[in-house]
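Journal club prep, notes for RB
We'll compare a predicted complex against what the paper describes. Inputs for the iron/sulfur cluster case:
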Amino acid sequence: MADMNPKKTPMPEQDPKVRARNFQEVTTGYTAEMAQTEAARCLQCKKPLCVQGCPVNVHIPDFIAKVAAGEFNEAYNVITSTNTLPAVCGRVCPQETQCEARCVRGKKGDPVGIGRLERFVADWHRENSIPETAAIEKNGRRVAVVGSGPAGLACAGDLARAGCDVTVFEAFHAFGGVLVYGIPEFRLPKAVVRNEVTGLMEMGVEFRQDMIIGRTLTVDELFADGYEAVFIGSGAGLPQFMNIEGESYLNVFSANEYLTRINLMKAYLPEYDTPAPVSRVVTVVGGGNVAMDAARSALRMGAEKVFIVYRRSMEELPARAEEVHHAMEEGVVFRLLCNPTRVLGDENGRCCGLECIEMELGEPDASGRRRPIPREGSEFTIDCDTVIMALGTRPNPLLHTTTEGLDADRHGCLITDETTATTRKGVFAGGDAVTGSATVILAMGSGKKAAASILEYLKNK
Ligand code: FAD
Ligand code: SF4
Ligand code: SF4
């Protein structure tokens, strides 16, 4: 008999006032007892809609039944039969629009905390299990993977398990893609990502850092070097700007650069000499997860006040509900229905304010969301010494402009067929490089799909 408590078992978390000034993880995770209590809320539906809501169809009721029975290792095996990165997805998946959105318990109360349970199982496994050392039979095929984000890691893992010799080429000096350079430590500890990378290294995957494919080596040179297939999971790291006056003033950043300085280059630690502005008032422009991460990082970097400027209303805000809630609790101030018109600068060329105009919502546009329209004469200024633009990103054109026969669409996204094959023979692609900025789980799913297609391609080659 299921536990009919309408509320999710609460997740322990740091006090908002304390956590707004440190980089430690906000939520501290379920204990085994809490996980079993939450698992008991699952109705074990015969036709589980939650599974349809998950982009990689994790067998949700099966893993939750194992959690309820205290069989955590078995629960891990169920999850990882379709999801390579459960510790990451349990933390950052937008569950409220995916698995949990479809959970029947959500009709009269909270849905089952599927993400929280997934995180618990993955963390339990990391802390308690003995790594498997079963020898993998090699098949003598060599594959290159470009990029070490979730798409690249998932693809490399499945290929290595199938016996391929896999080399991951990463432009940065650390592996994990956005999971290490974008998403901050307080949402996704780097140790969780490192653990996934170490697991692949132990499986025999070779990781090469500081290798920009298209510059250090080209895709053609990879083939000439004996790689029989190439997977491109190079993400969408090229930031967009508004092209308004004053964007070139000092202390106007793209969110990508700001977060990379803090996360990857550890600007928040005194022993690192990475330059990062010591700001009094920061304004972040945008309403997605990236904007929330930038705003909450700015608080932790010591800003007295942090604003989010977003041109639509709270209803349209694209960031995860949990991140918005956490940002508000920590003191980030939301200036909704307004849009920047220019950045103001002082005599030293430094940002000293952001001029904005108020907006109102008109008819829905092509995206189905109501179009924001400026209200004439409503200009106002936010005094601030740093502006961070979090307006979305695109794939970097480097790979398709340096690889013969590799086509991209007008947004710079690589063109693939349903098998993930690109227009260049032997080259496959997935993740944000194909879709534009999306989610971890979609990138991971496409990496797995590409691995299957590459194995098929190698078999027929
Ligand atoms: P990436 O993770 O971008 O990895 C690509 C890797 O390729 C990078 O390491 C890059 O350095 C490397 N690379 C690029 N070019 C080359 C080259 N020429 N040669 C070699 N290496 C190269 N998604 C969620 O689901 N939930 C969230 O909460 C969430 N929050 C986010 C917060 C931020 C700040 C950002 C930026 C994104 C967030 N996302 C979130 C989106 C998610 O992280 C991405 O969709 C996902 O990481 C894409 O994975 P990927 O493997 O395609 O690319
Ligand atoms: Fe939900 Fe993401 Fe896990 Fe799927 S992978 S069950 S969407 S948390
Ligand atoms: Fe359990 Fe909800 Fe899935 Fe039903 S829909 S199996 S209650 S998680």
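Talking point for the session: The domain at 142-237+394-460 is CATH 3.50.50.60 (FAD/NAD(P)-binding domain).
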